[in-house]
Specification:
The chain has a domain of 135 residues: Glutaredoxin. 39% of the residues lie in helices and 19% in strands. It is built from seven helices and nine strands, in the order αβββααβαβαββββαα. Strand 8 and strand 9 form a beta hairpin.
Length: 234
């Protein structure tokens, strides 16, 4: 009887020790994950700065993001050079670069390819699978640090998801979208977002769904704004 009681006590102690050791392991694992994970970007925060080699007008230059303060910036990531969806996006941005320039907005593309691969791609004519001339910088994120800072680096593939970040004149993140690899972005929507953000900066109003320049805006007054807006749409 005494022996049985002692064995039960031992089993209970072992069970408790296992429970606490298991808890300690889970806690340590969680702590390590949190400690070494990349911080999540939040709207309203300063965009992570970086300096990297970029292809600019067929020349290699060091590009530092913070030197663009005073301008809006569209910073977009794409998976890789010499691919399929990516060239359609890069060419579409380039073809409409004047519309961004009018808004004092710069466009910067980033991938994990080297600057030499960027150069080879733009030197290859479009009819032969290349890009031809691209009228904005292409950054080479070879060490993947930029993609990791912005939370778009895909460890398994070694390249980046289609992340797009709109940064205002103060260097503050104002818009974040991340597409899966197979889905290209709408240049019309990127232009619209920059226009809307700049309009709210100047006029202190808010822009409703599908807003475009010339459309009605709203004042942030919950008592009147919605009724007034929908009455004008009727």
């Amino acid at each position: 009887m005494g022996s049985s009681h002692s064995m039960n006590k031992i089993h209970k102690i072992r069970s408790e020790l296992w429970r606490w050791s298991n808890f300690s392991f889970r806690f340590c694992f969680w702590f390590l994950v949190m400690a070494f994970s990349e911080p999540r970007l939040m709207l309203g925060e300063l965009a992570p700065d970086f300096t990297a080699t970029a292809l600019v007008d067929f020349q290699f230059e060091d590009l530092t993001l913070s030197t663009y303060r005073g301008k809006y910036v569209v910073l977009f990531f794409y998976p890789a050079d010499f691919t399929f969806v990516c060239p359609t996006e890069l060419v579409a941005f380039s073809d409409r670069i004047a519309e961004f320039k009018v808004m004092d907005c710069e466009v910067i593309g980033v991938s994990t390819d080297t600057h030499w691969v960027h150069l080879a791609w733009v030197q290859t004519p479009r009819k032969m699978g290349g890009l031809g001339e691209i009228r904005y910088p292409l950054v080479a994120d070879r060490n993947t640090e930029i993609g990791k800072k912005y939370g778009v680096y895909c460890q398994g593939d070694g390249n980046c998801f289609r992340g797009l970040f709109i940064i205002d004149r103060r260097g503050i993140l104002r818009q974040i979208t991340i597409n899966d690899m197979g889905v290209g972005r709408s240049i019309d929507e990127v232009l619209r977002l920059v226009q809307a953000l700049q309009y709210t900066d100047v006029h202190g109003v808010v822009c409703p769904a599908n807003w475009k320049p010339g459309n009605e805006t709203m004042h942030a007054d919950p008592a009147k704004a919605i009724a007034e807006y929908f009455s004008k749409q009727a």
